[in-house]
Specification:
By secondary structure, the chain is mostly beta strands. The chain has no helices and ten strands.
Length: about 120
Amino acid sequence: QVHLVESGGGLVQAGGSLRLSCAASGILGSIYAMGWYRQAPGKQHELVASLTSDGSTYYADSVTGRFTISGDFAKTTVYLQMNNLKPEDTAVYYCNELTRGNSPWYAWGQGTQVTVSS
């Protein structure tokens, strides 16, 4: 059974920074990609950043230039450095392994709340 544990969220003022961490356990086999999603109240999960095993990255337009994803797939960990945070970044952030179709593979973990005050 796969467990995804996110941490590092919190309350920060606009312009501030946070670093999120994700530890995944129970994943068998090699990982193709991992990603960070967020879900704002009343909205669906949104993929904000992903990292593939060959080092390729994807960022949603809304976070490009402000967020940086990194990770160590051998340790099944992934991080999200978030700089210059904006109130619209407020959401619960989740990590997940991605399928080759960029869909989340496993059930969601508990997520970590990020709240950005103006």
